[in-house]
Amino acid sequence: MTNPIGIQKTVGKKWTMVLAILSFVIPLATWSVISYVPFVYHPLMRVVDAGDSMFCMPGDEIDRANFAEENKNLLESGAKPMTGVRANPAYLPAPHEVAKALVTAFTTEPKRDGDVWFYQSILHSVKIVFLAFLLSSLVGVPMGMLSGAIPFFEKLTGPFIEFFRYFPAPVFGALAVAVLGINDAPKIAIIIIGTFFQQVPMINATTRRADGALIEAARTLGASPKRILFKVILPEIAPKMYKDMRILLGWAWTYLIVAEVVGTSSGITWFINQQAKYRNFDNVYAAIVILGIIGLGCDLILAWLGKKIFAWEDGRVGVAAKFKQVVGSKDDVFSFRLTAEEKTMRDRYNGRL
């Protein structure tokens, strides 16, 4: 393999795969060293034999300094000292414990009647995120496109959005509960607030980067503003906007934990808090890993779909283009379809509009 390091140097496919694997191996290796090598961290002592100590029992975990001091006192009094092994705090389980919890979390029944299973908590959280993102996009994407394409709308909406987007979404938690109740509605509202006011400026900026030459060409051919927006600007910015939406979906996931503690605690946040109360930190880590897997999985699927839908970015013919070649009309000029009046003008002036 060639050296992949360099300013603006393209990394080949082999190095891309190697670096992707290393990006996970390095943190996992660091975690393993901290967990399994006693002299690296392990600030506690787990009591194996309490000896003649009146303060400790087998299985207790105490600070190493306190362990040494208690043993010193026991030896000075002629009593039997404690024995133990170095250990990490309960909030730092070893990788194999978390790997086991990734299975047992799904198979272990809830401890209390009426509590939900782990998979039900996950499905609830996924529903909250995707519903909130959908509702945000239904308004945010058109508004962002309009404000990016038409300066009038940008001047009308931009100042307030720029003012509002600096508010942390969680500050609206109490107000959301007061207006929308204590169930899922305020959680969805918090994610919408956190996503929408970032979505509009991002789509706005992407729309403003549309190729001006294409717009001028469409104007020269007599296209109306509506046709320019939907037949020229939208197809031109669609791949970039699709990537923006992938980033914004990840943004929506970051608000999930905050949103789910608003009103009645639910979803994967409820599961994490419950397991922390029981000091089952292996389950806490397992839930966090599951969140990462879901987020990464969604992004990989969306990236794959994007390559299929917008294949022309890589010089390939996409599925939609192939379908259009078979069933599409021959009256397509540039990126928009001719109206009946334009067809008449084309025929009258030998193909010129």
Structural commentary:
The protein is mainly alpha-helical and 353 residues long. It folds into 3 domains: 1-42, no CATH class; 44-87, no CATH class; 107-316, MetI-like fold (Orthogonal Bundle). Helix content is 65%, strand content 5%. It has helices at residues 13-36, 64-76, 95-107, 118-149, 151-164, 173-180, 184-208, 212-220, 225-254, 256-260, 267-277, 281-309, 319-327, 340-348; strands at residues 44-49, 61-63, 83-87, 332-333, 336-337. It has a 3-stranded antiparallel beta sheet. Strands 4-5 form a two-stranded antiparallel ribbon. Strand 4 and strand 5 form a beta hairpin. Helix 3 (95-107) crosses helix 12, helix 4 (118-149) runs antiparallel to helix 9 and helix 8 runs antiparallel to helix 9 (225-254).
Summarize the structure.
This protein is mostly helical and 353 residues long. It contains 14 helices and five strands. The chain has three domains: 1-42, no CATH class; 44-87, no CATH class; 107-316, Orthogonal Bundle (MetI-like fold).
CATH level-four homologous superfamily name of the largest domain: MetI-like
Q: Main beta sheet, described?
A: 3 strands, antiparallel
Number of separate strands: 5
Could you estimate the helical fraction of the residues in percent?
A: 55-70%
> How many distinct folded domains?
3
Radius of gyration over alpha carbons?
29 Å
- Strand sequence of the main sheet, in spatial order? 2-1-3
Tally the helices: 14
Q: Tell me the structural class.
A: mainly alpha
CATH topology of the largest domain: MetI-like fold
**Low confidence ranges:** none
Overall mean confidence score, pLDDT? 86
Order of helices and strands: HEEHEHHHHHHHHHHHEEH
> How would you describe the shape?
elongated
Please give the CATH class of the largest domain. Answer: Mainly Alpha
CATH architecture of the largest domain: Orthogonal Bundle
Portion in strands: 5-15%
Distance from first to last alpha carbon: 55 Å
